[in-house]
């Protein structure tokens, strides 16, 4: 039987796999990849943004963002608009359909959260605190090894 830290990590890893599978399935039904969904969330959160800013937000290359914007543009999710002060730059904005898609993604996330954590009201603050600490420690370890 694994020790407590190993057992906890085993559960976190299993949770990661299950959440990833569920997310990919749900996004696939919408014709999205994880990266495309992240771009939609980024524009929804930050508002109209340059592709350079989006690349930085997503941690990908500008060329990757260009491809994503091309594909999401062809699907009617985003558009490119002239930057009001920089003639060399364009802003990526959500279309009406893109804004509705983003709102649907947020609603789906809230619904899943409600279903996963229903009845755990007393334990949820402690779970959130501990999980936040684990995430912070993993980020620190990742930054150390980079």
Describe the secondary structure blueprint for this structure.
Blueprint: H1 4-29, H2 34-46, E1 49-50, H3 51-58, H4 62-74, E2 78-82, E3 90-94, H5 96-117, H6 124-145
Helix pairs in contact: 2-5, 3-4
Protein name: DNA-binding transcriptional regulator, MarR family
GO molecular function: DNA binding; DNA-binding transcription factor activity
Keywords: DNA-binding, Transcription, Transcription regulation
Describe the structure.
With 146 residues, the chain is mostly helical. The chain has a single domain (12-119), classed as Winged helix-like DNA-binding domain superfamily/Winged helix DNA-binding domain (Arc Repressor Mutant, subunit A, Orthogonal Bundle). Helices cover 71% and strands 8% of the residues. The chain has 6 helices and 3 strands. The protein has helices at residues 4-29, 34-46, 51-58, 62-74, 96-117, 124-145; strands spanning 49-50, 78-82, 90-94. A 3-stranded antiparallel beta sheet has the order 1-3-2. Strand 2 and strand 3 form a beta hairpin. Helix 2 packs across helix 5 and helix 3 (51-58) packs across helix 4 (62-74). The longest helix has 26 residues, at 4-29. It starts with a helix and ends with a helix. 14% of the residues are buried. The model has no long low-confidence stretch (mean pLDDT 94).
